[in-house]
Design brief:
Length: about 375
């Protein structure tokens, strides 16, 4: 998963068919059957059903650091005309910081995220020739894929009122509850602060959702996780707090939300430069819901969310709609999602700028830049 999983120390194992598709597309060694032994070695399953999660002895720790630096690459030309990355010029963000040239003995690996990676390439002269010339950047390599094909897992939040003490909102409007939960966490290591905003995901196929939100009859074939046709394209992320500023919200009750999310995004955006200052963020043009397929999938996610809420109410749980679509008709769903859509903060950049060596083992998402030697993304 992305930052939601990392921040919450959580893990979601992918659908086997997804891994198998990677392997069939040239990612040697990435069939699910080949990866499963590594999952088993890294997992410790604490639930009752050990058939699906057989790992029992694994622990993985992570740490991260942030530095206020920015960089540019320096290049040379090989005799065959290819471009070679020789190293990186690093300098601090302050005007009086000293620049340092770091020479690469073997390769340079660039991993600055979906937004800063293409920005750094563009500032270094690697990207679409026309855009570089418009920005007065010396063209080192004309690479049309840089800064293109941007994707994000779009989220459309919904809102409901619920019992106050079932919602994290209680800690905001009741200071005594906040103090109690801080004490429980600091003294006993228990309580609400052990949780995260999203503790449960529902992964689903939009094609199985009816117009009224009900789920179609699911065949045994549809339950096969190795079937490429069963890769989920939507998710529902229940959250124990929602937007308190939504019209009709009772701020003295609890706030709860379902958050339909697109998993298999087909809309594409771009990341042109905003300026030549590396401290300025690039222009982020996401083009959300720009394809019919994305709109159909998100409608299904909103309909499924409404159906889950309806079933909760029928079971006796007191939910009250505050920020939902007027109806489950396409026109109302489209209007709601256009006004409520937001970033899932899972930005990624398709690898059209890369070329893959089918014979070379490598991590998913890591590959060589086309026509550039000693350089990986």
């Amino acid at each position: 998963g992305g930052c939601t999983r990392i921040n919450g120390c959580q893990n979601t194992c992918g659908v086997p068919a997804e891994f198998d598709a990677w392997s069939r597309n040239g990612r040697k060694g990435w069939f699910y059957a080949e990866l499963e032994p590594f999952f088993q070695r890294s997992e410790t399953w604490l639930g009752r059903d050990r058939r699906e999660y057989p790992g029992h002895c694994g622990t993985i720790g992570f740490t991260c650091a942030q530095a206020l630096w920015h960089a540019n690459f320096f290049f040379s030309r090989n005799n065959d005309g290819s471009t070679c990355v020789d190293g990186v010029k690093i300098r601090g963000t302050n005007s009086d910081d000293v620049s340092v040239n770091v020479r690469a003995k073997c390769e340079v690996i660039l991993c600055c995220g979906a937004l800063r990676t293409p920005q750094l390439l563009l500032l270094s002269g690697v990207g679409p020739k026309k855009h570089l010339q418009e920005m007065n950047v010396d063209v080192v390599l004309d690479s049309p894929g840089v800064g293109e094909h941007l994707q994000d897992h779009l989220i459309v939040p919904t809102g409901y009122d619920c019992p106050l003490f079932d919602s994290l909102w209680a800690m905001i409007i009741r200071p005594t509850i906040l103090i109690r939960e801080l004490y429980n966490y600091l003294r006993y290591g228990s309580g609400w602060f052990l949780g995260t905003l999203v503790e449960l995901d529902t992964f689903f196929l939009s094609s199985l959702v009816e117009k009224d939100g009900r789920v179609k009859s699911i065949s045994r074939e549809r339950e096969d996780p190795f079937n490429a046709g069963n890769i989920p394209d939507i998710a529902i992320l229940p959250c124990s707090i929602s937007d308190p500023s939504a019209e009709g919200t009772d701020k003295w009750r609890g706030l709860f939300g379902f958050n339909p999310t697109l998993l298999k995004v087909t809309s594409r955006g771009s990341l042109p430069l905003h300026s030549l200052d590396p401290r300025d963020a690039p222009l982020c043009k996401l083009n959300y819901l720009n394809t019919p397929k994305d709109r159909v999938a998100m409608r299904a996610g909103l309909r499924l969310s409404a159906e889950i809420a309806r079933q909760m109410c029928n079971a006796g749980y007191p939910l009250k709609e505050t920020s939902v679509s007027k109806s489950l008709e396409d026109v109302d769903l489209d209007s709601f999602m256009q006004g409520r859509a937001s970033s899932g903060a899972c930005l990624c950049d398709r690898r059209e700028m890369l070329r893959y060596d089918r014979e070379e083992p490598f991590l998913a998402g890591v590959g060589r830049m086309r026509n550039v030697v000693r350089f990986r993304l």
